[in-house]
User: Which sequence fits this backbone?
């Protein structure tokens, strides 16, 4: 007689492989390590095959374990979706793990409205300059800005954002309003700089100018603060600058200059079937961004 494969044990096995260790899976799933170990031992006995190679550095699937992982993962995700659709009385429930670029204020309004529509979905939103690994970090969907150089994800284009040069009227009263990039580079500049990027150049297509900021940071709120205080020229994303431009506290410089545009994509793992929560989020983002246009 064939042994029955335990659905919950299979879910725990998939979680351990994704996490890379029993301790990481335990933290992520809220299941004691002893329970994880026991359930996976029972699963190995039911299948009569060793699924994991254990070491003090963590765990990794055996050849047979990897085969089982790849084939079982999609089935478990589909079954979980079916289970949720039946038991939740048509309400989407669960936890959605997201990643958003730092200082991306536009997305906070989107998430507020998303959770108002889906009050039973809990959201964890990670924000960092570090590019997250969807599998290792357990992230369902990441919002990425700029060009993508990755092949193992599905990327859905969302929108493009533009960067603008801004300064306060106080600063312009002291220095005058620049007419070219070269003139602007002679003003005090508060610029964007990350730990791994210290190259300061503006390029309008017809004019290319290097500049040296007197203050640099990877925090957009700091750049806004410096611009509003009249300390320097800043380059901000259009949605960050808009309220201050409308109030007159900031002025756009060189509005006729070719603007730098950055594409935005929502990405999720290519090899992972998108859950009902992920599909709801992707659809909501498309709808919400459509209203902005």
Assistant:
């Amino acid at each position: 007689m064939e042994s029955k494969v335990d659905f919950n044990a299979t879910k725990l096995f998939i979680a351990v492989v994704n996490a890379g260790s029993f301790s990481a899976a335990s933290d992520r799933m809220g299941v004691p390590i002893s329970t994880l170990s026991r359930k996976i031992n029972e699963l190995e006995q039911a299948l009569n095959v060793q699924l994991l190679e254990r070491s003090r550095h963590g765990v990794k699937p055996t050849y047979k374990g990897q085969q089982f992982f790849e084939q079982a993962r999609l089935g478990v995700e589909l079954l979980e979706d079916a289970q949720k659709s039946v038991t939740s009385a048509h309400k989407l429930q669960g936890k959605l793990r997201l990643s958003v670029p730092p200082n991306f204020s536009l997305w906070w309004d989107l998430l507020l409205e998303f959770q108002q529509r889906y009050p039973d979905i809990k959201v964890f939103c990670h924000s960092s300059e570090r590019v997250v690994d969807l599998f290792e970090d357990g992230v369902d969907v990441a919002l990425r800005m700029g060009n993508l150089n990755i092949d193992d994800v599905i990327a859905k284009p969302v929108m493009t954002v533009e960067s603008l040069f801004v300064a306060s009227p106080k600063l312009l009263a002291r220095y005058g309003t620049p007419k070219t990039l070269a003139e602007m580079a002679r003003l005090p500049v508060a610029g964007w700089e990350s730990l791994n990027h210290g190259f300061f150049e503006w390029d309008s297509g017809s004019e290319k100018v290097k500049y040296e900021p007197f203050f640099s940071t990877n925090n957009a709120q700091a750049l806004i603060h410096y611009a509003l205080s009249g300390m320097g020229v800043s380059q901000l994303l259009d949605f960050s600058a808009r309220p201050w431009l409308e109030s007159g506290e900031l002025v756009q410089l060189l509005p006729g200059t070719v603007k730098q545009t950055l594409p935005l994509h929502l990405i999720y793992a290519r090899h992972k079937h998108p859950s009902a929560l992920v599909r709801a989020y992707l659809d909501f983002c498309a709808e919400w961004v459509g209203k902005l246009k």
